[in-house]
Design goal:
The complex is a heterodimer of chains A (328) and B (279). Chain A is of the alpha/beta class and 328 residues long. Chain A contains eleven helices and 14 strands. Chain B has 279 residues and is an all-alpha fold. Chain B is built from 13 helices and no strands. Classes of the chains: A alpha/beta (328), B mainly alpha (279).
Chain lengths: 328, 279
């Protein structure tokens, strides 16, 4: 089976700006793939080329086996694009917007109306169905926009910054929707500047910066390419610090760092299984632990390590993961 | 916005999975069906935002009132005399001004990202443009109705009767369509809908005022008479006036049709090429 997307040396310039500067990428069917990068990295340009809205200057790309330039029509027949700005008509009602797309895709008036009603129900927009879109909140627009992409279920969905500007609640709703989409078999290619979002949604991701692909893999791959896991330990008393340090060094055969205060220690470990050994050693030595945590490096740190500059803006962290600061 | 209560309703996972599963794909709408659907969209916009019709027609309506009562007596002996002369011309001006909305609408769709959606659909690509033009028929028709109704109230009595008025209006529409292509180009070139408006006024004020819409050019200086005589709007106003009052104006009608054909022949291909090239 051909991959969902195959990109070879794809490039696009706008004037002197090389927006996309030679990207190679293969995306398997049925996955959620994240293009991660800061503003202006070339994510949107890449997606617009794949959705046949822009013609590449160089390189090729195939979507579901169809060349995006020579077989643009065949690509359009199988994909949907949910752009960065809600691509729906603000003057029309939610229902009318969906009927419009349904008619354009060849549904009869009746089927288009039935489908619109179904979608509005599933996307929690029934009560807003007969209101003009201009009265919708950001989250409602986004949901309607995604619903418009599913009037006929596409094989590939391009989702450009699906949660930019949304409040945490609406963002979680969009995340639920993306997961449901993937569970039903549609391949999703999403762009995001939010590392947390890529981490939560994407099976694999590509980090893009200045039009180039600088890393590719699962979020775990990317994290481990930067650094291994870090064990943080909080002791009950300061007096135990030097003994604890000794025990940990012996048990893990690694350098132990002092944390923010004299009660805390952190140590980088290559193999997660050895955490148990470390804890057992402390326990055997009679050292009391207030708390411990095992954290992967955050994607923020990954991005910084790969590009030498931070990704901005940072995602709002309403639900901090296990990951802690690793004290770079 | 008072949408908090609505936006807080939750997405139901069960329903979601049901609607997201793959359904058989229908055969895509034909070019004609797509154009008609997008024309339907233009109709809905007029229904939801009737003001867009009013704000462009308000100006010609105001001009009708102003010119008829302020200058009618001086220019033609009486307001009633004058409106027989003025109204077909005002109709021309009103419709010519509304053509800008084709460009404003296109530009709005592009800046709002709606065109991305249309162009990523497997439809006949220029359908959005032809759909917009189709919607314009209705817009022009409604505007014409408003202007003529006001005229009839003010004492406009076309001697050509209903057929004359319809033919005159139809000729104005033909010219309006050719002009729309220019606004489609402007709509793709400029950055915001507002600048489409601004650009258009620089062009439309001289185009409609340096004509015989308001006064007989015989009283103008020689050089201006030359300008006026080459202005297609002059011929359009003469033709519309003639048709509505049952006079022989074949030469002017021919002039308008040829001018419209030339404008369309030049600008329609450029507009369509730009539209394709935008990608």
């Amino acid at each position: 089976m051909t991959p969902a997307i195959e990109i070879t040396a794809l490039a696009k310039s706008f004037g002197a700006t090389r927006a996309v500067n030679g990207i190679d990428l293969t995306i398997a069917r049925g996955s959620v793939y994240g293009l991660l990068g800061p503003n202006g990295a070339g994510k949107t340009t890449t997606i617009r080329m794949l959705a046949t809205l822009l013609r590449p200057d160089a390189g090729t790309a195939r979507v579901l086996g169809h060349d995006i330039v020579r077989e643009a029509g065949a690509v359009r027949a199988k994909v949907s694009l949910t752009g960065q700005f809600a691509s729906i008509d603000e003057d029309l009602t939610g229902q009318e917007n969906l009927v419009l797309v349904g008619r354009l895709l060849g549904l009869s008036w009746r089927d288009a109306r039935v489908r619109a009603t179904e979608l509005l129900g599933a996307f929690a927009l029934t009560e807003a169905a007969t209101r003009q879109v201009r009265t919708f909140s950001g989250g409602m627009r986004r949901r309607l926009d995604i619903a418009a992409s599913f009037v006929v279920t596409p094989e590939v969905l391009f989702l450009d910054e699906p949660t930019t500007g949304l409040d945490p609640r609406s963002r979680n709703q969009v995340w639920d929707i993306v997961r449901a989409i993937a569970a039903e078999g549609t391949t999703v290619l999403l762009t995001t500047q939010y590392l947390e979002e890529a981490d939560r949604l994407a099976d694999r991701l590509a980090v893009i910066d200045h039009g180039r692909l600088i890393a590719e893999g699962t979020s775990r791959d990317l994290k481990s390419s930067v650094g291994a896991n870090t064990l943080h330990i909080q002791l009950v008393t300061t007096e135990d610090q030097s003994r604890a340090r000794e025990q940990l060094t012996r048990a893990l055969d690694a350098e132990v760092h002092s944390g923010a205060d004299t009660c805390s220690l952190s140590v980088t470990i290559a193999d997660v299984k050895r955490v148990a050994d470390a804890l057992a050693a402390l326990s055997a030595a009679g050292i009391d632990i207030a708390e411990f945590s095992l954290g992967q490096p955050s994607l923020d740190e990954v991005f910084f390590a790969l590009t030498g500059h931070p990704a901005q803006p940072t995602a709002s962290q309403d639900s901090p993961a296990v990951a802690q600061e690793t004290g770079t | 916005m008072s949408t908090d209560t609505l936006s807080s309703t939750t997405v139901s996972p069960g329903k979601l999975h049901a609607v997201l599963s793959r359904t058989p794909r229908p055969a895509v709408a034909s070019g004609l069906a797509a154009t008609i659907t997008l024309g339907w969209r233009a109709l809905l916009k007029i229904k939801h935002v009737p003001f867009q019709l009013f704000d462009v027609t308000a100006f010609p309506l105001m001009m009708t009132l102003m010119f008829t009562f302020l200058f009618g007596g001086a220019l033609a002996g009486s307001p009633r005399e004058y409106i027989q002369f003025l109204l077909p011309g005002i109709l021309v001006q009103a419709i010519v001004f509304i053509t800008v909305y084709t460009g404003v609408g296109l530009n709005t769709d592009i800046t709002k990202g709606l065109y991305d959606r249309f162009r990523s659909l497997p439809i006949w690509q220029p359908a959005p443009i032809f759909g917009a033009l189709l919607g314009d028929v209705l817009r022009y028709g409604l505007a014409a109705l408003m202007v003529i109704t006001l005229g009839l109230i003010l004492g406009f009595r076309p001697e050509g009767g209903v057929p004359g008025v319809l033919l005159g209006t139809a000729l104005v529409l033909v010219f309006a369509f050719s002009l729309s292509w220019i606004w489609i180009i402007v709509g793709m070139l400029v950055k915001t809908p507002e600048s489409v408006m601004t650009t258009s006024f620089l062009f439309l004020f001289p185009l409609t005022f340096a004509s015989n819409i308001f006064v007989d050019p015989a009283t103008m200086p020689g050089w201006l008479q030359t300008v006026v005589s080459f202005n297609p709007v002059t011929h359009l106003a003469t033709a519309a006036r003639g048709l509505m009052h049952g006079q022989q104006v074949l030469a002017s009608i021919a002039w308008v049709l040829i001018a419209s054909a030339i404008v369309t022949a030049i600008f329609a291909p450029i507009a369509l090429r730009m539209y394709y090239k935008e990608r």
